[in-house]
Design goal:
Layout: H1 2-20, H2 24-32, E1 44-46, E2 49-53, H3 55-61, H4 65-73, H5 83-88, H6 91-96, H7 121-137, H8 142-148, H9 152-166, H10 181-188, H11 191-206
Antiparallel strand pairs: 1-2
Helix pairs in contact: 2-4, 3-4, 4-9, 7-11, 8-9, 9-11
């Protein structure tokens, strides 16, 4: 039993290192060799770093876009339940608050507010569809994000957050402090991330 535990500990340490260093092929190998079965239960710890992170949470925290995509495709949960996840391991929170080089640009102006006169139901529906179209047209491609957000690191952070949001990560999920992910991000003052989360919430509400 002790030998098996040591082997498992070594394998998890290798997975930890592969994720933080961006070794996507190692992660794919782990998934193909049974990792899919424990993708949402295994917790990664290495010398008290990143305590109890799931593979997805660790990859999100280090903004490893390729690995995040592979883990999501393998059905990693972007909204892990439970008090421990709320305390240490919400992937969206870890990605959106990651400390990276590169300053994002100020957010674009949002759509104009509706007039005070109450519109008809048909006008409201047309307005909803128009706002949704505008928001979707403002979504950037991966190449545009990398070019606009100050280099590879900040661009990959944007891509990771977008991948999590597209996988239905919830910006309104609360941490153990009682704050939502969005409220934590607002506290960082990162205008790009704040705008991204708020825009995503607007799209979901309009759909």
């Amino acid at each position: 039993a002790s030998v098996a535990a040591d082997v498992n500990k070594r394998l998890l340490a290798q997975l930890f290192a592969a994720i933080i260093h961006g070794n996507a092929s190692h992660v794919s190998k782990w998934l193909s060799e049974g990792g899919r079965d424990e993708i949402n239960s295994v917790k990664l710890t290495c010398n008290n770093w990143d305590l109890d992170r799931s593979p997805l949470a660790l990859a999100a925290e280090h903004c490893q876009y390729d690995i995040v995509g592979r883990l999501l495709k393998a059905r990693a949960d972007p909204n892990p339940p439970g008090p421990k996840a709320m305390r240490t391991g919400l992937p969206l929170l870890l990605a959106a608050t990651a400390s990276l080089q590169g300053q994002p640009p100020p957010p674009e102006q949002g759509p104009e507010e509706a007039s005070e006169e109450k519109p008809s139901d048909a006008e409201q529906d047309r307005g909803r569809k128009s706002r949704l179209r505008v928001l979707r047209e403002r979504e950037r491609t991966a190449e545009e994000a990398l070019a606009e957000l100050g280099g590879r690191s900040a661009g990959e952070q944007w891509l990771v957050v977008k991948a999590l949001l597209d996988a239905r990560a919830d910006p309104n999920q609360r941490t153990w402090l009682g704050l939502t992910v969005t409220e934590h991000v607002v506290a960082t003052g990162n205008a790009e991330m704040i705008n991204m989360l708020e825009q995503h919430t607007m799209v979901r509400e309009l759909e």
